[in-house]
Amino acid sequence: MYDLSRAYYIAHGDLNIPSTYVTPEGVKLGAWLNRQRQIRAGKVQGSLTPEQIRALDAIGMSWLDLGEERWNRNFRALRAYFEQYGNIDVPQDYVTSDGLKLGRFVKNMRFHRDTKYRRCLTPERLNMLDEMGMIWDVDAYRWEQNFRAAEAYYREHGDLRPAKRYTTPDGVKLGTWLAYQREKHSRGELEAEKVTRLNAIDMAW
After folding, report:
1. 3-class secondary structure for 120-168?
2. How many other C-beta atoms are found inside a 10 Å radius of the C-beta of residue 181?
3. Which of 25, 38, 111, 205 would suit a FRET pair with 184, their CA atoms being 20 to 30 Å apart?
4. Predicted confidence (pLDDT) per residue in 65-123, tens digit
5. Cα(first)–Cα(last) distance of the chain, in Å?
6. Where do the H-state alpha helices sit in 23-91?
7. Is 67 helix (H, G, I), strand (E, B) or coil?
């Protein structure tokens, strides 16, 4: 099994193998590697000698749980994104230069927080994401962005009647957004708090 692992490492440069991976010869190599991790962590019976541990280390063995390893890899990429752009408002289709689907990762984290899969978001992980300004409620965040643009327009022009196709210098489609707020208001679907805030800057319904 070690020889197969070493051959995989030589071919791929790592041992990031899914637990379901089976070699072309039909050997369940992924399950075997996962068992070595569990043995070392004391989760299942078995033993690994220091020599065996060193031999696996030499071919890039990661002793972390695969889920934890995947999360750490995505988080490192997310931190790099934050350092480059100053936020983690990652587009859903964003893929890193090395092929990591970072936009999907962020979307999944938002989804997991409010479902039974929340267990993958430990308090420590939540804190790590919050420290970089994680946007958990995208709709609320986008509304606030547009409202701030509306406030700025009102302060500058004294009204809130831009052309329908008006876009702010920083790319906010304010005219379209205001038209959508009017439409929601006419259907009785705009929350009272939002109506009050818009009224305060002379919204033309």
Report:
1. HCCHHHHHHHHHCCCCCCHHHHHHHHHHHHHHHHHHHHCCECCCCCCCC
2. 19
3. 111
4. 767 778 888 999 999 999 999 999 999 999 999 899 999 999 999 988 877 666 678 88
5. 71
6. 29-40, 50-57, 66-85
7. helix
